[in-house]
Design goal:
Blueprint lengths: L1 H25 L4 H5 L23 E6 L2 E4 L5 H10 L4 E7 L13 E11 L3 H4 L12 E11 L4 E9 L4 E7 L3 H9 L7 E12 L2 E8 L3 E12 L2 H8 L7 E4 L5 E4 L4 E5 L4 E5 L14 H11 L7 E9 L2 E10 L2 E6 L9 E7 L6 E5 L1 E3 L5 E8 L2 H10 L8 E13 L2 E12 L2 E5 L17
Length: 454
């Protein structure tokens, strides 16, 4: 009897095995379920840009026989001059660790390019034509100066590539035509040029001083209003997650939204105005990325929808192995430093973080863009002179001169629903943050500009 039962069980298992095998062979997945999943086309939100298109000098200063001029706002001269001299062939002559005072080479014709923060030397190959970049020794560039000089009784356009923090600079010679250079820095223009003076903010020693150029007289800058168009988070859902079909959408109790695939997360913050992407990179720090973050960040932005509006490289901060890079919105040549959303810088900044590895673990950006043409140009705002600003700072209570690291005319962003207004102000970079300075100008009104260079 017992043997019959074992035989029946054995036959049952054999038949069950045959049945399951046939089911596996003949199984057809229900593709209709996958096909019914809603799909958002992965369309770009902006333009893919090359490195030179996101690197622009914060200011271009023209020196003539001891007097300096600068176009404060965007104008054809600044744009064309920078574009024209990009691609110049330069050759290293020497490296020095003692910088002469600026007035020693600004007594004659010179052009100075000041950048918002240090540039890795590898960027020079994207701006100029250089054969021996590795021999430059210095690792970063803060400022570039082009000037006329005599070499064996022959005029040539020379240059200085200056690194403040490293307290070194490279002397170079260029292939720029001296006659063309003279014409460019002396010919009259219809745009407004303001006479400026230098003001020291940081002294690194051995002649290396970070100076800013401030207007001698008061000047006038327009406030402008643009339409602000929202960017759907669905665009980023398609580009920031490896499989958008597994992304879940949550609404928080405070009205904010979140998207996650169980690992990566996208948070939509501040009434839908800011996107924050978090990508934990466990174990990625084992192999440190030697490629400059500026190159990697631009690749990331181009690969995830492109860049909206005129965002330019602004700063790089290091916190141990962590690197944070910021791109800042620039409107009509003037950077945006603050907004009416107090403490929310990402209405006008794009930041990316990586912790030593190859992937970015955080990406924060605005979820709107401003249209190309303004809908309104309002009253002209008077900006007090640089001298008035300095006097205001001297009288400011508890002001620590050593915490001042930069000064700039910038825009305050006022965002209201679908409109954004940019209002000009004086700003100082103080203790690492940009702050508005209310300057009291006791001088009389002045036109404050020269119609061309003399």
């Amino acid at each position: 009897m017992f043997e019959h039962i074992k035989t029946l069980i054995l036959w049952f298992l054999i038949l069950l095995s045959i049945f399951l095998t046939v089911q596996i062979w003949t199984f057809q997945p229900e593709y209709a379920i996958l096909k019914s999943t809603e799909y958002i086309e992965n369309t770009p939100i902006g333009e893919e840009k090359r490195l030179p298109e996101v690197i622009k000098p914060k200011q271009v200063v023209i020196h003539q026989h001891g007097t300096s001029f600068s176009p404060i706002e965007r104008n054809d001269f600044l744009e064309s001059f920078y574009e024209e001299y990009r691609g110049t062939s330069i050759q290293k002559r020497s490296i020095s660790s003692s910088l002469l005072p600026y007035d020693k080479y600004t007594e004659f014709k010179a052009v100075e390019f000041t950048f918002p923060d240090s540039l890795p030397k590898e960027v020079l190959n994207e701006i100029f034509q250089i054969k021996d970049i590795e021999s430059f020794i210095i690792n970063e560039i803060d400022r570039i100066v082009l000037f006329l000089d005599n070499e064996m009784d022959k005029e040539r356009v020379h240059g200085k590539l200056i690194s403040f923090k490293e307290q070194m600079y490279v002397n170079v010679v260029t292939n720029i035509s001296p006659s063309k250079f003279k014409e460019d820095v002396t010919k009259e223009k219809t745009e407004q040029f303001y006479e400026v003076f230098s003001y020291e903010v940081i002294n690194y020693g051995d002649g290396f001083k970070k100076t800013v150029y401030l207007p001698e007289e008061s000047l006038f800058v327009n406030s402008v209003t643009y339409l602000a168009k929202p960017i759907s988070p669905d665009h980023f859902k398609q580009t920031l997650f490896s499989d958008p079909n597994f992304v879940k959408h949550y609404f928080q109790s405070d009205g904010e939204e979140s998207f996650t695939d169980g690992n990566r997360m996208v948070n939509v913050l501040y009434s839908g105005n800011v996107l924050r992407y978090i990508n934990p990179t466990f174990g990625d720090v084992i192999e440190r990325n030697s490629r400059p973050i500026l190159f990697s960040a631009l690749d990331f932005l181009n690969g995830h929808g492109g860049l909206t509006n005129s965002f330019y490289y602004d700063s790089l901060k290091n916190f141990g192995t962590n690197e944070e890079i910021t791109f800042r919105l620039v409107i009509d040549g003037i950077p945006v430093y603050r907004s009416n959303y107090f403490g929310v810088n990402h209405l006008f900044e794009i930041t990316l973080n990586r912790d030593g590895g190859h992937q970015f673990d955080e990406y924060v950006r605005p979820l709107f863009y401003v249209e190309d043409d303004p809908v309104n140009i309002t009253k002209t705002t008077k900006i007090p002179s640089g001298h008035a600003l300095i006097e205001t700072l001297k009288e400011k209570r508890d002001f620590n001169r050593f915490l001042l690291t930069d000064i700039s005319i910038g825009f305050m962003m006022i965002k209201r629903q679908s409109f954004v207004t940019f209002e000009p102000r004086w700003f100082i970079q103080y203790n690492g943050n940009w702050e508005v300075v209310d300057v009291v100008d006791e001088t009389e009104d002045s036109e404050g500009f020269l119609n061309g260079l003399e």
